[in-house]
Every structure is written in C-alpha cells, then in structure tokens.
Design a protein that fits this description.
Layout lengths: L3 H12 L20 E10 L5 E6 L11 E2 L2 E3 L6 H13 L7 E5 L3 E2 L4 E10 L14 E6 H4 L6 E7 L2 E10 L2 E4 H11 L4 H4 L7
Parallel strand pairs: 1-7
Antiparallel strand pairs: 1-2, 1-4, 2-3, 2-8, 5-7, 6-7, 9-10, 10-11
Length: about 200
C-alpha cells in the first residue's frame, strides 16, 4: 500500500499546528451577514505523482457557473463538513465514500457569494470508475498536487468587482482555467503544506 496517506497526514498535522499569515478570504465582499455553511472534498489521487480531483461546473449553474471546482456544496441539516463533502462527491461523481481516506479539515474560506467553505482533504485510489452527474458536472480532470501547492504556479490578477478592486489568482492546466474559490483554497493550503519538507523528491512539474 502507498505511504501517501501517512505522508500527507504528517504534512497536514504539521502545517495546521501553527498560525500562518495572509490566508485568503472574500467574506468582506459578501452582501449578507448570514453565511451559508458548505464543504468541498480535496481528493488527492494516490498515484506515483499524486494528483487532485477537480470538476468543471456547468455554465447554467446559479453559483460560480463554468468554474473549476472541488466536489462539494451546502451542508444539509444535521451534517458536519466531512459528511457533506463525501455526500456531494458521491452525488456529483459517484465517488464511493467508503474508499475515501479523510486526512482532516483545513482553513475556512468565505466566498463573496455568501458561503463559508470548509475544505476536507483526503486520499482516494486511482482509476475509479467515476460517473459525473450532468446537472452538476460538465467535466472532471486531475491536476498535479505538486503544481497546485507550488506558489510560483499561480499568477496574481485584479478585477473591479462589487465596487472595488479584487485580487485573485489563476493558472491554466490542460485547457482548464483554475481560479476563484478553488484557487484561493489551494493557495491557503500551500501556506500549510510544503511537499518538500518531508520528501525532497516532490517537485512541481
């Protein structure tokens, strides 16, 4: 069995044992005082060069249409973040929750559209027979974990939105533009996890 899970557990615990500065958030842009709890599954695929499972949302969705995202969504009544993330991944991609090895929950991210998102990091086996739900997923793909957690991979941009300049980050990978909430969550995670700290063989592509 791969040691990826144990390796990432150690990195995750070490990175979340201390305060970090400069975590991204768009909560100040939200036009509501009542943020909606949500959760996403950051599923790391257990490959020799680990990847992260990502989806592209359909263009007709109300929130964040067409954007690259993690599987996830709003919490149902009585759910915690881990349960919600696993349920959403199962609904969106037929990802069986019993194969998901949860590592832990990372920093909350508040979106400008009124959600408080809890990222749930986990490891999943490779080559699962995923089946996207057409109403929630237009496409799915995997991107290298090392690339996503390398700060130099991201370019910083600015846009005028809701009456002010907003800073955001993006990168292009295999024809997909990764930006917005997904990019911010990954950049926050990169402040917690340095893949080279425990294994110098991890390198950004």
């Amino acid at each position: 069995m791969s040691d990826l899970f144990d390796h990432l557990c150690a990195l995750f615990a070490d990175g979340h044992s201390r305060e970090v500065e400069g975590l991204l958030s768009d909560g100040k842009l939200a036009e509501t005082d009542r943020m909606t709890p949500a959760a996403v599954l950051m599923a790391v695929v257990d490959r020799p060069e680990p990847t992260v499972l990502l989806t592209q949302r359909p263009n007709n969705m109300r929130d964040h249409p067409g954007q690259v995202a993690f599987p996830g969504g709003k919490l149902d009544p009585g759910e915690d973040s881990v349960t919600a993330a696993l349920r959403e991944a199962e609904e969106e991609l037929a990802l069986p929750r019993d194969v998901v090895r949860v590592i832990g929950t990372s920093d909350l991210y508040e979106t400008g559209t009124g959600f408080t998102v809890t990222p749930v990091m986990a490891v999943i086996p490779p080559d699962l027979p995923l089946v996207p739900s057409p109403s929630e997923v237009a496409a799915w793909f995997e991107a290298p974990l090392a690339m996503l957690l390398e700060p130099a991979s991201w370019s910083e941009q600015e846009i005028f939105w809701k009456g002010r300049m907003r800073r955001y980050f993006e990168l292009e990978y295999d024809g997909f533009r990764i930006w917005g909430v997904t990019a911010a969550i990954l950049i926050n995670l990169s402040k917690r996890i340095d893949l080279r700290k425990f294994n110098p063989d991890f390198r950004s592509p």
